Amino acid sequence: MKNHDIVNGQILQTNKKWSHLKQNQKNLIAEWLQEEYRGFIAMYLRKPKRFEEEYMIDSVMERMQARDIWIPYVEVKTYFTRKKGKWYRKLESELE
Protein backbone atom coordinates (compact mmCIF):
# COMPACT_ATOMS: atom_id res chain seq x y z
CA MET A 1 0.00 0.00 0.00
CA LYS A 2 2.66 2.49 -1.00
CA ASN A 3 0.13 4.91 -2.53
CA HIS A 4 -2.38 4.76 0.31
CA ASP A 5 -2.62 6.36 3.74
CA ILE A 6 -5.03 5.57 6.53
CA VAL A 7 -6.74 8.74 7.77
CA ASN A 8 -9.64 8.67 10.25
CA GLY A 9 -10.08 4.95 9.66
CA GLN A 10 -10.39 5.38 5.87
CA ILE A 11 -7.86 4.48 3.21
CA LEU A 12 -6.94 7.44 0.98
CA GLN A 13 -5.20 7.05 -2.36
CA THR A 14 -2.37 9.60 -2.28
CA ASN A 15 -1.72 9.62 -6.03
CA LYS A 16 -5.31 10.28 -7.06
CA LYS A 17 -5.91 12.18 -10.31
CA TRP A 18 -8.73 14.46 -11.47
CA SER A 19 -9.93 11.73 -13.84
CA HIS A 20 -10.42 9.34 -10.91
CA LEU A 21 -13.22 11.48 -9.45
CA LYS A 22 -16.86 10.72 -10.13
CA GLN A 23 -18.56 13.04 -12.62
CA ASN A 24 -20.81 14.64 -10.01
CA GLN A 25 -17.75 15.36 -7.84
CA LYS A 26 -15.97 16.99 -10.79
CA ASN A 27 -19.03 19.11 -11.54
CA LEU A 28 -19.35 20.17 -7.91
CA ILE A 29 -15.70 21.19 -7.60
CA ALA A 30 -15.82 23.02 -10.94
CA GLU A 31 -18.94 24.88 -9.82
CA TRP A 32 -17.29 25.92 -6.55
CA LEU A 33 -14.14 27.12 -8.32
CA GLN A 34 -16.12 29.08 -10.88
CA GLU A 35 -18.26 30.59 -8.13
CA GLU A 36 -15.15 31.76 -6.25
CA TYR A 37 -13.61 33.17 -9.45
CA ARG A 38 -16.79 35.02 -10.47
CA GLY A 39 -17.21 36.39 -6.96
CA PHE A 40 -13.67 37.75 -6.92
CA ILE A 41 -14.02 39.46 -10.29
CA ALA A 42 -17.41 40.90 -9.35
CA MET A 43 -15.96 42.32 -6.13
CA TYR A 44 -12.62 43.70 -7.37
CA LEU A 45 -13.26 44.11 -11.15
CA ARG A 46 -9.91 42.54 -12.06
CA LYS A 47 -8.24 39.17 -12.41
CA PRO A 48 -6.92 37.66 -9.18
CA LYS A 49 -3.21 37.60 -8.47
CA ARG A 50 -1.47 34.29 -7.86
CA PHE A 51 -1.70 34.44 -4.05
CA GLU A 52 -5.37 35.40 -4.31
CA GLU A 53 -5.97 32.37 -6.54
CA GLU A 54 -4.41 30.21 -3.85
CA TYR A 55 -6.87 31.61 -1.28
CA MET A 56 -9.74 30.73 -3.63
CA ILE A 57 -8.43 27.20 -4.11
CA ASP A 58 -7.94 26.83 -0.34
CA SER A 59 -11.57 27.76 0.33
CA VAL A 60 -12.70 25.18 -2.25
CA MET A 61 -10.43 22.57 -0.65
CA GLU A 62 -12.14 23.25 2.70
CA ARG A 63 -15.53 22.69 1.08
CA MET A 64 -14.22 19.44 -0.42
CA GLN A 65 -13.04 18.22 2.99
CA ALA A 66 -16.47 18.97 4.42
CA ARG A 67 -18.01 16.77 1.70
CA ASP A 68 -15.35 14.02 2.13
CA ILE A 69 -13.97 14.51 -1.38
CA TRP A 70 -10.22 13.97 -1.41
CA ILE A 71 -7.87 14.86 -4.25
CA PRO A 72 -4.39 16.41 -4.08
CA TYR A 73 -4.13 20.22 -4.04
CA VAL A 74 -1.99 20.12 -7.20
CA GLU A 75 -4.77 18.46 -9.21
CA VAL A 76 -7.32 21.11 -8.21
CA LYS A 77 -4.83 23.91 -8.93
CA THR A 78 -4.02 22.44 -12.36
CA TYR A 79 -7.70 22.22 -13.23
CA PHE A 80 -8.29 25.81 -12.06
CA THR A 81 -5.31 27.08 -14.08
CA ARG A 82 -6.63 25.43 -17.24
CA LYS A 83 -10.18 26.77 -16.84
CA LYS A 84 -9.72 30.32 -15.53
CA GLY A 85 -9.04 31.80 -18.99
CA LYS A 86 -12.25 30.34 -20.36
CA TRP A 87 -14.24 31.62 -17.37
CA TYR A 88 -12.72 35.11 -17.73
CA ARG A 89 -13.60 35.31 -21.44
CA LYS A 90 -17.12 34.17 -20.65
CA LEU A 91 -17.47 36.86 -17.97
CA GLU A 92 -16.11 39.52 -20.35
CA SER A 93 -18.72 38.65 -22.96
CA GLU A 94 -21.49 38.75 -20.33
CA LEU A 95 -20.42 42.18 -19.09
CA GLU A 96 -20.36 43.76 -22.57
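That was protein one. Protein two is written in the same sequence-then-structure order:
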Amino acid sequence: MPGEPDVSADGGTRGDTCHLDIVDRWGNMIAATPSGGWLQSNPVVPELGFPLGTRLQMTWLEEGLPNTLTPGRRPRTTLTPSMALRDGVPVMAFGTPGGDQQDQWQLHFLLAVALREPVRGGLDLQGAIDAPNWHNDSFPGSFFPRGMRPGSVTVESRTDPAVVEALRRRGHQVTVGDDWSEGRLCAVARDPATGVLSAAANPRGQQGYAVGR
Protein backbone atom coordinates (compact mmCIF):
# COMPACT_ATOMS: atom_id res chain seq x y z
CA MET A 1 0.00 0.00 0.00
CA PRO A 2 1.86 3.13 -1.19
CA GLY A 3 2.42 5.71 1.50
CA GLU A 4 1.59 3.40 4.40
CA PRO A 5 4.85 2.35 6.09
CA ASP A 6 3.17 -0.07 8.50
CA VAL A 7 1.53 -2.25 5.82
CA SER A 8 3.68 -4.74 3.91
CA ALA A 9 3.08 -5.96 0.37
CA ASP A 10 1.13 -8.98 1.63
CA GLY A 11 -1.19 -6.80 3.71
CA GLY A 12 0.41 -7.62 7.04
CA THR A 13 0.57 -4.83 9.59
CA ARG A 14 2.87 -4.07 12.51
CA GLY A 15 2.66 -1.72 15.42
CA ASP A 16 0.30 -1.32 18.33
CA THR A 17 -0.03 0.28 21.74
CA CYS A 18 2.74 -0.26 24.29
CA HIS A 19 3.38 0.91 27.85
CA LEU A 20 6.44 1.77 29.92
CA ASP A 21 7.11 2.98 33.46
CA ILE A 22 10.32 4.47 34.86
CA VAL A 23 11.38 5.41 38.40
CA ASP A 24 14.75 6.63 39.69
CA ARG A 25 16.39 6.71 43.12
CA TRP A 26 15.10 10.22 43.78
CA GLY A 27 11.48 9.24 43.23
CA ASN A 28 10.99 10.76 39.79
CA MET A 29 8.39 8.67 37.95
CA ILE A 30 6.84 8.45 34.53
CA ALA A 31 4.06 6.30 33.08
CA ALA A 32 3.61 6.45 29.30
CA THR A 33 1.31 4.62 26.88
CA PRO A 34 2.43 5.48 23.31
CA SER A 35 -0.24 4.64 20.75
CA GLY A 36 -1.95 5.77 17.60
CA GLY A 37 0.81 5.81 15.00
CA TRP A 38 -0.65 3.43 12.44
CA LEU A 39 -2.81 4.99 9.73
CA GLN A 40 -4.46 1.77 8.59
CA SER A 41 -6.66 1.85 11.69
CA ASN A 42 -8.06 5.31 10.90
CA PRO A 43 -11.27 5.72 8.88
CA VAL A 44 -10.90 8.00 5.85
CA VAL A 45 -13.45 10.80 5.44
CA PRO A 46 -14.68 10.13 1.85
CA GLU A 47 -15.50 13.78 1.11
CA LEU A 48 -12.10 15.00 2.29
CA GLY A 49 -9.74 12.16 1.39
CA PHE A 50 -7.74 11.99 4.62
CA PRO A 51 -8.11 9.90 7.78
CA LEU A 52 -9.15 11.04 11.20
CA GLY A 53 -6.56 11.01 13.95
CA THR A 54 -6.42 7.66 15.68
CA ARG A 55 -8.15 8.99 18.79
CA LEU A 56 -10.49 11.35 16.94
CA GLN A 57 -12.19 8.28 15.46
CA MET A 58 -13.52 7.58 18.96
CA THR A 59 -15.92 10.53 18.77
CA TRP A 60 -19.56 10.05 17.77
CA LEU A 61 -21.28 11.86 14.90
CA GLU A 62 -24.64 11.79 16.68
CA GLU A 63 -25.50 15.10 18.33
CA GLY A 64 -26.08 15.57 22.03
CA LEU A 65 -23.77 12.85 23.36
CA PRO A 66 -20.89 13.36 25.82
CA ASN A 67 -18.47 12.22 23.12
CA THR A 68 -20.08 13.98 20.13
CA LEU A 69 -17.56 15.40 17.65
CA THR A 70 -17.37 19.07 18.67
CA PRO A 71 -14.77 21.79 17.94
CA GLY A 72 -12.35 22.15 20.83
CA ARG A 73 -13.49 18.99 22.61
CA ARG A 74 -11.04 16.18 23.21
CA PRO A 75 -12.41 12.69 22.50
CA ARG A 76 -12.76 9.96 25.05
CA THR A 77 -9.63 7.83 25.01
CA THR A 78 -8.68 4.39 26.25
CA LEU A 79 -5.12 5.46 27.07
CA THR A 80 -4.68 5.64 30.84
CA PRO A 81 -1.05 5.73 32.01
CA SER A 82 -1.51 5.98 35.77
CA MET A 83 0.28 7.07 38.92
CA ALA A 84 -0.63 6.35 42.55
CA LEU A 85 0.22 8.76 45.36
CA ARG A 86 0.44 8.25 49.12
CA ASP A 87 0.12 11.39 51.23
CA GLY A 88 0.73 13.43 48.09
CA VAL A 89 3.93 11.59 47.19
CA PRO A 90 4.13 9.42 44.03
CA VAL A 91 4.71 5.80 45.03
CA MET A 92 3.75 3.81 41.93
CA ALA A 93 3.47 4.18 38.15
CA PHE A 94 1.60 1.59 36.11
CA GLY A 95 -0.36 0.94 32.95
CA THR A 96 -1.14 -1.41 30.10
CA PRO A 97 -2.07 -1.52 26.43
CA GLY A 98 -5.39 -3.15 25.64
CA GLY A 99 -8.04 -0.78 24.27
CA ASP A 100 -11.20 -0.75 26.36
CA GLN A 101 -9.71 -3.31 28.73
CA GLN A 102 -7.05 -0.89 30.02
CA ASP A 103 -9.09 0.76 32.78
CA GLN A 104 -10.57 -2.57 33.84
CA TRP A 105 -7.24 -4.39 34.10
CA GLN A 106 -5.63 -1.44 35.86
CA LEU A 107 -8.41 -1.11 38.43
CA HIS A 108 -8.05 -4.79 39.28
CA PHE A 109 -4.29 -4.35 39.63
CA LEU A 110 -4.58 -1.22 41.79
CA LEU A 111 -7.05 -2.89 44.15
CA ALA A 112 -4.82 -5.97 44.37
CA VAL A 113 -1.90 -3.77 45.43
CA ALA A 114 -3.89 -1.53 47.77
CA LEU A 115 -5.69 -4.36 49.57
CA ARG A 116 -2.81 -6.82 49.82
CA GLU A 117 -1.09 -7.43 53.15
CA PRO A 118 2.16 -5.44 53.40
CA VAL A 119 4.90 -7.30 51.58
CA ARG A 120 8.18 -5.73 50.40
CA GLY A 121 7.23 -2.30 51.67
CA GLY A 122 3.53 -2.94 51.04
CA LEU A 123 3.86 -3.20 47.25
CA ASP A 124 3.74 -6.73 45.88
CA LEU A 125 3.65 -5.64 42.26
CA GLN A 126 4.31 -8.99 40.62
CA GLY A 127 1.65 -10.78 42.65
CA ALA A 128 -0.93 -8.17 41.67
CA ILE A 129 0.00 -8.42 37.98
CA ASP A 130 -0.04 -12.22 38.05
CA ALA A 131 -3.45 -12.45 39.77
CA PRO A 132 -6.24 -13.86 37.54
CA ASN A 133 -7.76 -10.96 35.62
CA TRP A 134 -10.97 -10.25 33.71
CA HIS A 135 -12.81 -7.76 31.50
CA ASN A 136 -16.34 -7.05 30.34
CA ASP A 137 -17.78 -5.77 27.06
CA SER A 138 -21.10 -4.45 28.36
CA PHE A 139 -20.57 -0.94 26.99
CA PRO A 140 -20.16 0.25 23.37
CA GLY A 141 -16.60 -0.26 22.18
CA SER A 142 -14.40 2.76 21.62
CA PHE A 143 -13.38 1.57 18.17
CA PHE A 144 -15.44 0.97 15.03
CA PRO A 145 -17.82 -0.85 14.75
CA ARG A 146 -18.36 -0.12 18.48
CA GLY A 147 -19.65 -3.58 19.33
CA MET A 148 -20.92 -4.53 22.76
CA ARG A 149 -22.06 -7.63 24.64
CA PRO A 150 -24.33 -6.56 27.52
CA GLY A 151 -23.89 -8.70 30.61
CA SER A 152 -20.72 -10.36 29.36
CA VAL A 153 -17.57 -10.94 31.39
CA THR A 154 -14.43 -12.79 30.30
CA VAL A 155 -12.22 -14.36 32.96
CA GLU A 156 -9.00 -16.33 32.92
CA SER A 157 -9.32 -20.07 33.51
CA ARG A 158 -7.27 -19.67 36.70
CA THR A 159 -10.23 -17.84 38.27
CA ASP A 160 -11.80 -19.70 41.20
CA PRO A 161 -14.65 -21.86 39.77
CA ALA A 162 -16.83 -20.76 42.70
CA VAL A 163 -16.43 -17.14 41.56
CA VAL A 164 -17.38 -18.08 37.99
CA GLU A 165 -20.47 -19.91 39.20
CA ALA A 166 -21.47 -17.01 41.44
CA LEU A 167 -21.22 -14.61 38.50
CA ARG A 168 -23.42 -16.86 36.38
CA ARG A 169 -26.03 -17.10 39.15
CA ARG A 170 -26.16 -13.31 39.12
CA GLY A 171 -26.96 -13.31 35.42
CA HIS A 172 -23.53 -12.60 33.93
CA GLN A 173 -22.64 -14.31 30.66
CA VAL A 174 -19.24 -15.67 31.62
CA THR A 175 -16.63 -16.66 29.05
CA VAL A 176 -13.68 -18.59 30.45
CA GLY A 177 -10.57 -17.74 28.44
CA ASP A 178 -7.03 -19.09 28.53
CA ASP A 179 -5.19 -19.21 31.84
CA TRP A 180 -2.90 -16.23 31.02
CA SER A 181 -4.94 -14.11 28.60
CA GLU A 182 -6.17 -10.99 30.46
CA GLY A 183 -3.90 -8.00 31.04
CA ARG A 184 -0.61 -6.59 29.74
CA LEU A 185 0.40 -4.60 32.82
CA CYS A 186 3.76 -3.39 34.01
CA ALA A 187 4.55 -1.24 37.03
CA VAL A 188 7.31 0.41 39.05
CA ALA A 189 7.23 1.66 42.63
CA ARG A 190 9.29 3.46 45.25
CA ASP A 191 8.74 3.22 48.99
CA PRO A 192 9.18 6.80 50.30
CA ALA A 193 10.18 5.52 53.75
CA THR A 194 13.03 3.28 52.62
CA GLY A 195 13.81 4.38 49.06
CA VAL A 196 13.45 0.75 47.93
CA LEU A 197 12.56 0.49 44.23
CA SER A 198 10.32 -2.26 42.86
CA ALA A 199 9.36 -3.27 39.34
CA ALA A 200 7.20 -5.97 37.81
CA ALA A 201 6.23 -7.02 34.30
CA ASN A 202 3.44 -9.05 32.84
CA PRO A 203 4.20 -12.67 31.86
CA ARG A 204 1.24 -12.79 29.47
CA GLY A 205 2.46 -12.60 25.90
CA GLN A 206 6.08 -12.70 27.07
CA GLN A 207 6.61 -9.11 25.88
CA GLY A 208 7.15 -7.26 29.17
CA TYR A 209 10.36 -6.85 31.15
CA ALA A 210 11.33 -5.38 34.53
CA VAL A 211 14.89 -4.02 34.43
CA GLY A 212 16.90 -2.24 37.13
CA ARG A 213 20.40 -0.82 37.42
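Strands lie at 20-23, 29-32, 82-86, 89-95, 134-135, 152-156, 173-177, 186-190, 197-201. Keep this in mind for the problem set.
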